[in-house]
Amino acid sequence: MRSRDRAVVVVLLTLCAALGFAPAYAGDSGRIGLRLMEMPESRRNDPRARVSIVDHLGPGAVIHRRLLVTSVSPEPRRFQLYAAAAGVPKRRFVYAPGRTGNELTSWISFDRDRIILPPYGEAVVRATIRVPPSAWQGERYGMLWAQAEPRPGGNPRVVSRAGVRVYLNIGPGAEPPTDFRIEKLIALRNPKGRPVLRAIVHNTGRRGGG
After folding, report:
1. Among 31, 52, 203, 205, which Cα is nearest to 142's?
2. Residue 37 has pLDDT above 70, yes or no
3. What is the pLDDT of residues 171-186, one digit of tens each?
4. Are 68 and 34 in contact (CB under 8 A)?
């Protein structure tokens, strides 16, 4: 592999990490993980589809996805499962605060909206996306969240949750092409002295998203 090719691979991996294509951890000692367990065969070459729900659906379509909820708490914990809104202002994926909804979240349901996990336990849940027959063509964005309920005596303002992104394109026929162009690679070092690559990337396809 040529040095430029290796650099591009490193940049792509760095971009995936920077854009959050991985479970998110936050909050108290009752941390939680949420991971997508399956993806369409047609997307086996799409790195985003390994960690996010990325799909093109026609009006009236229904899909199901299994997710693994993992507790990193040393005690039993209750968790809530729900969908919330997201968007891509200025081409960056941003999720809405709390349980803010949008059109896409009204199409999403879980087979269980609450689960109890034993210490360091895990469970498989299933999310369903049901597109109405009257849905308009275009991109929709959202988040699937697993959130720990506050412990007795704990701080209710401290939120511990993990999420999986949803990139959904609605429209008839084949999916619009997805592609990008790397314009510039910049090699530098971070404050700790470690080598870092930065890139200017342009979306040259017909699908949006950050």
Report:
1. 52
2. yes
3. 986 555 555 567 677 8
4. yes
What is the Cα–Cα distance from 210 to 133, expressed in whole angstroms?
A: 27
- Report the alpha-carbon angle 127-35-113, nearest 5: 35
Which residues of the chain form beta strands (DSSP E)?
Answer: 32-36, 53-57, 62-71, 77-87, 94-95, 108-110, 114-117, 122-130, 138-148, 161-170, 180-189, 195-203
57 to 23, 140, 163, 172, 200: CA distances (angstroms): 24, 11, 22, 8, 30
Query: Is the pLDDT at 161 greater than 70, yes or no?
Result: yes
- In which residue are the tokens 């039993």 written? 76
pLDDT of res. 44: 83
Closest Cα to residue 24, out of 204, 138, 161?
161
| pTM, 2 dp | 0.70
